[in-house]
Amino acid sequence: GEDVEQSLFLSVREGDSSVINCTYTDSSSTYLYWYKQEPGAGLQLLTYIFSNMDMKQDQRLTVLLNKKDKHLSLRIADTQTGDSAIYFCADLNQAGTALIFGKGTTLSVSS
Amino acid sequence: NAGVTQTPKFQVLKTGQSMTLQCAQDMNHEYMSWYRQDPGMGLRLIHYSVGAGITDQGEVPNGYNVSRSTTEDFPLRLLSAAPSQTSVYFCASSYVVPGLSGNTIYFGEGSWLTVV
User: Exposed site from A4, A18, B46, B95, fewest CB < 10 Å?
Assistant: First the structure.
């Protein structure tokens, strides 16, 4: 079945760049998403990328998509302590009716 | 501008009790869904609805019922609560079925449910 995998933890220093990686199995994916969850809160959409794009940049966020390897990454430039959160990669299921989430990557930013 | 509103935020239930988690959105979204979030498991889809009167099962539907009598509301019912249903529940909505476009999927703040 469809699956999304991500590394579970990432620790960086304030000011460094963070790169969170994700792999997915569905070769027909049309949209791929990155969500952020702060402690005790819901999920906030950070960005998404359409499958015909290789890269999308939005201020400090850069999303790279390698369709051949089914690999998605989220780069956060100049990481701040406020970026500490859980980041979820998500793919649409084949029917397009729901999101399939990875288990989430916990980003810890130290000052 | 309320967005997606979930109630209650916290609830403790005894095994065997029933309850309803409420979800309402004021954005005239056709698509609504319920996910549960468990430690180390990410979010898993319970049920979803593509419009009023239409519901379908997700990945983990057992023990849960839903209905969609209006566009705005999508309640999730636990018929006989079990400790395995201890989780954080998220309601989400979007203008149309996500696969039709890259439209934003909005999430509620979550409902923390403990079954003892």
Answer: B95
